[in-house]
């Protein structure tokens, strides 16, 4: 915990880094954006998994500050990539529960866009079912305020939490992200229905954009595209990359 506080205190945050995993159009893999993912290598050289960083930061009351730092860095990078020849590039940023519920959250998003010059449509905030299911009316209010800014909203890890379908229908979101656990048995032998397929059908029925996570094989990418899932992330295309490596990949794919 003291280490995390120290990592946050540093003027030049070399220990805390953002990696970027390409988000691609299916089935071919043209890069349309990226998801920003937190990485922390401690001074002692240990890699701390992002879930652990987030839960540490949450319990220490540091998550709002950390979340703002992440969003700012990701938006700054995305603005540069849009200006540098990828005008439709979209950056996806994960939002933690305490961050989403903090009173000034919508204003902090607005400030971040103003400070980085990123067009609102270039930012997609990823919220989890845990966020979405608590105090649903308040959540819907915040989501509408974010939509009024022009920001996009994705529901992350869909299907792994406890959201009810009745609530899903009410949530003003743009995108459903299909959790990578659903791709483990996918595609299935002919005739067998998979969870991935059910989620894609549900998303299409609700007229949501779909992004499948954890795509590892070309067969998965093709099957998803055939069902109508137009977005994907996964090792088939690229793992999360450090900022410089991601920029190089983006430049090479122009
Ligand atoms: O990169 P990796 O697969 O290890 O990330 C695991 C999970 O950690 C992500 O799916 C995401 O939910 C969470 N995570 C990564 N970066 C961030 C971040 O900046 N903020 C929040 N709240 N969660 C993040
Ligand atoms: O936000 P979320 O928890 O979904 O973050 C995605 C995480 O999943 C990334 O941190 C990344 O390390 C991991 N990941 C990304 N692509 C793949 C993949 O194709 N296979 C597996 N097993 N993990 C992946
Ligand atoms: Mn995510
Ligand atoms: Na996810």
Automatic annotation (TrEMBL):
- Domain EAL residue range list: 1-254
Domain of life, per lineage = Bacteria
Coiled-coil parts of chain: none
Q: What is this protein called?
A: EAL domain-containing protein
Report the source organism.
Answer: Pseudaquabacterium terrae
Full-protein residues shown here are: 520 to 773 of 773
């Amino acid at each position: 915990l003291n280490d995390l506080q120290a990592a946050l205190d540093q003027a030049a945050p070399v220990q805390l880094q953002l990696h970027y995993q390409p988000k691609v159009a299916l089935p071919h893999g043209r890069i349309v954006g990226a998801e920003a993912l937190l990485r922390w290598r401690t001074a002692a050289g240990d890699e701390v998994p992002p879930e652990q960083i987030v839960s540490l930061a949450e319990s220490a009351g540091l998550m709002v500050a950390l979340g703002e730092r992440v969003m700012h860095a990701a938006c700054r990078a995305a603005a540069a990539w849009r200006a540098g020849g990828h005008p439709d590039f979209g950056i996806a940023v994960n939002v933690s529960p305490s961050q989403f519920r903090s009173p000034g959250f919508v204003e902090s998003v607005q400030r971040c866009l103003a400070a980085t010059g990123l067009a609102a449509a270039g930012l997609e905030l990823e919220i989890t079912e845990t966020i979405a299911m608590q105090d649903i009316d308040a959540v819907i209010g915040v989501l509408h305020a974010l939509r009024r800014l022009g920001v996009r909203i994705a529901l992350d890890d869909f299907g792994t939490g406890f959201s009810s379908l009745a609530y899903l229908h009410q949530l003003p979101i743009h995108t459903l992200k299909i959790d990578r656990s659903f791709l483990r048995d996918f595609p299935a032998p002919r005739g067998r229905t998979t969870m991935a397929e059910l989620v894609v059908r549900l998303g299409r029925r609700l007229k949501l954009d779909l992004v499948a996570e954890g795509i590892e094989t070309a067969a998965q990418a093709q099957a998803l595209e055939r069902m109508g899932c137009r977005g994907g992330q996964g090792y088939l295309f690229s793992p999360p990359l450090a900022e410089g490596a991601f920029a190089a990949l983006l430049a090479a794919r122009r």
